[in-house]
Amino acid sequence: MTTTLNAPISAGRELDVKLLGPNFGAELSGLDVATADEAQLTLLRAALIEHKVVVLRGQDIDDATHVRLAQRLGETTVGHPVWDSGSDVPDEVYSLDSTDNGFADVWHTDVTFMPRPPAGSVLRPLVLPPTGGDTSWADGELAYASLSEPVRELADQLYAFHDGTREFGYYLRQNRGGVGNVWEGSRVTELTPSRHPVVRIHPETGRRALFVNPGFTSHIEGVSDAESRALLDLFYAHLTKPEHIVRHRWSLGDIVLWDNRNTLHYANRDYLPNRRVMHRVTLRGSEPVGPSDT
Fold first, then answer.
1. Which among 37, 90, 163, 268 counts the fewest CB atoms within 10 Å?
2. Is the peptide bond before 203 cis (omega within 30 degrees of 0)?
3. Is 66 a catalytic residue?
């Protein structure tokens, strides 16, 4: 599926596509997620794979409809491996409330500290500040493709560990008593680092993406600490070059979906002391596979 600015895509239905950037990201119109039929959901899935980040506007939905949308796109996970979002939201919802340390102001890919990180995320705002709180996404595929060939060849051979302890270890021990949520059928009682390829091959397209992030990647396997820091700093700086980024300014009624297998994101923390509340639902993913695994 190839789209251009404001061009319709069709599979028995039409959705208008407005590109967010020249290489990835798109805003779709002509779809109401509460009443969408299967043909429209097929288009939405295809658009997500092609554009990686998809914005829908004017969607006045509740948590139950949010969860149903995600379930129509794939199999959902529990909201988070560790975080308790409370009994007033469905189990699938992860609530990020700025009054309860619900910030995401570090570049990251969701839940890469688990063996099978989510395939995708579906996010919507409930409370927004008057201004600020924008979210940006970086495209790991663009970043990989624009590396020099020798660095790409090196990256293809590398593996890194992803560790959730820094962000969630204290919370798991002190707030949850060492007992987290059920993730992939098992109760989370400790955050054991997960080993993933530095370059991930997308399971649906076969395209390669840099798959490291400052939020959760702790170190690269098989190199010295100094080499690991230097390599990760190189990859992070390259991933977050402006030409690899799109940015979204939120309005109530927005829903943003993204492919978690080839993107990173960052939420601005520039709105305090105002409040920002977001609800996220994630889609179950697969174990990352890299060039050396194939």
1. 37
2. no
3. no
Task: Kindly list the distances between the CA atom of residue 113 and the CA atoms of 58, 116, 193, in Å, as whole numbers in the listed order.
Answer: 33, 9, 6
CA-closest candidate to residue 250, choices 132, 110, 98, 105: 132
Active-site residue identified among 196, 265, 276, 279 = 265
The single residue of 110, 139, 163, 254 carrying the catalytic annotation is 110
Say what the pLDDT of residue 185 is.
92
The reply to whether 110 belongs to the active site is: yes
Query: Where does residue 113 rank: exposed (0-12), middle (13-18), buried (19+ CB within 10 A)?
Result: buried
Q: Are 49 and 20 in contact (CB under 8 A)?
A: no
Q: How confident is the model at residue 10 (pLDDT cuts 50, 70, 90)?
A: very low
Does residue 96 contact residue 293 with C-beta atoms inside 8 Å? no
Q: What are phi and psi of 183, to 5 degrees?
A: -125, 125
The CATH homologous superfamily to which domain 7-293 belongs is Clavaminate synthase-like (3.60.130.10)
Q: Pick the catalytic residue: 51, 108, 208, 248?
A: 108
The answer to whether 108 is a known catalytic residue is: yes
The pLDDT of residue 13: 52
Considering the candidates 244, 276, 279, 280, report the single residue annotated as catalytic.
Answer: 280
The helix (H) or strand (E) run that includes residue 265 is strand 263-267
| All structural domains of the chain with their residue ranges | 7-293
